[in-house]
Amino acid sequence: MLTKNEKILIIGAGGQIGIELTAELSKIYGHKNVVPSDLKAPAVITENPFEILDALDGKALFEIVKKHGITHVYHLAAMLSATGEQNPMFAWKLNMESLFHVLDLGKEKHIKQIYWPSSIAVFGPTTPRENTPQYTVMEPSTIYGISKQAGERWCEWYFKKHGVDTRSIRYPGLIGWKSAPGGGTTDYAVHIFHEALKKGNYESFLSENTALPMMHMEDAIRATIEIMHAPSENIKIRGAYNLSGISFSPKDIAAEIKKHIPDFTISYKPDFRQAIADSWPKSINDADARKDWGWKEHYDLPKLVENMLVNLKNLKTV
Length: 318
Hints:
By secondary structure, this protein is of the alpha/beta class. The chain has two domains: 7-173 and 217-242, Rossmann fold (3-Layer(aba) Sandwich); 174-214 and 245-284 and 299-317, UDP-galactose 4-epimerase, domain 1 (Alpha-Beta Complex). It is built from eleven helices and 14 strands. It has helices at 16-29, 58-68, 81-86, 88-107, 143-162, 188-198, 217-229, 250-258, 273-278, 287-293, 301-317, and strands at 7-11, 34-38, 51-52, 70-75, 113-115, 118-119, 165-167, 169-171, 173-175, 201-204, 212-216, 241-242, 246-248, 265-268. The protein has a six-stranded parallel sheet with strand order 3-2-1-4-5-7, with helices on both faces. A three-stranded parallel sheet has the order 6-8-12. It is globular. 46% of the residues are buried.
């Protein structure tokens, strides 16, 4: 929790997670205490003191930290799995160098606490796919996954060597209605709702029985804030915690959508993202997060589908 005169910086605030995290943290701490930043200004103006920031510009980052008296950083800027495979060298540069800029600010005691998200992409084809444990084989097959695995080890190292208060979650696929998909392999589970309402059909880039761990965005935002609010002594893992919500396939979510839109149809045309999905877990064991800081999801598949359809319909009618 923030104390008096402490402030939050969100790097990559214009992304799928950043938009909702900015709003939720602003509710808790007030707009003036939450500073969103990104490469360009948001389309919708908020009361927050927004900053233009390239996450690779360490000097500019430091200037923003000094200007606002930043004490807590949520570092969300990254190139995701599918996009990263198209531009691997830049994905590695962005994902790793930007993290070092933030970790070094922690090492130098300019900031007190760092949140940096990891992902189920840290796992690979040799990882046990059912009920994937916290500690297991990790041989990621994407640049995104490789960078996230490396980032976990660096966060842990900075904690052990320099006392930097780093905290992280391995996000599953995230599903929300407030922003567009961001270039990830699990993005079909967001796009399918838009297409169902717009056209009544959807062509999936994953095969029908490709089960993957997923989570409603509200659960993910709540988990992110809960882990940051947890007492330091409760955080036993400084790499990243497994986190689970629900697991389903394109066939499963299509069947649930049909309960609300009976004429909805789905077809399948797997592309390069199928190989990425096939290297990831089908379900996640998150017992450590539940034990250490009390994690518990709120959304199951029926509740998630209803929430998405209701809110997207309301958006389209406003």
